[in-house]
From TrEMBL:
UniProt-recorded name of the protein: Cytochrome c oxidase assembly protein COX19
One MF annotation (Gene Ontology) recorded for this entry: copper ion binding
InterPro entries with a match to the protein in the record: COX19
Biological process (GO), any one: metal ion transport
Annotated Gene Ontology cellular component terms: cytosol; mitochondrial intermembrane space
Organism: Fonsecaea erecta
Entry's family note: Belongs to the COX19 family.
PANTHER family, per database record: CYTOCHROME C OXIDASE ASSEMBLY PROTEIN COX19
Functional note: Required for the assembly of mitochondrial cytochrome c oxidase.
Length: 109
């Protein structure tokens, strides 16, 4: 009978890998909570679940823009984050305008 932590358990070979972009501060002051709440609601509304539509991607862009503005993550190009968009057909959308205003011209640091 082998117990937890016994030889041959396999856990000794596990080597964690660090996140690609390193660690970053949590949003303890809820500075970007309004945006992440909208993004999570958008994800829950998706049918089929897990679909990555443009509305949710724009909210993700707005959230990351908020984090960059508040110093909660390093500024980076949208293309490096997988969030580079062309002009949307609904240019008068508040989500699109806010996302574009949140730092589409940021320089890589």
């Amino acid at each position: 009978m082998s117990g937890f932590g016994a030889p041959g358990g396999g856990a000794a070979n596990y080597k964690p890998t660090p996140p690609e972009r390193g660690s970053f501060p949590l949003d303890h002051d809820a500075e970007c909570k309004h945006v992440i709440s909208s993004y999570l609601r958008c994800l829950r509304r998706q049918n089929p679940p897990g679909r990555n539509n443009e509305e949710c991607r724009l909210l993700a862009k707005e959230y990351l823009g908020c984090r960059m503005e508040k110093g909660l993550m390093a500024k980076d190009e949208w293309s490096n984050l997988g969030l580079e968009f062309g002009k949307t057909a609904t240019g008068d959308s508040n989500v699109a305008n806010t996302a574009d205003a949140s730092g589409s011209d940021m320089k890589k640091s």
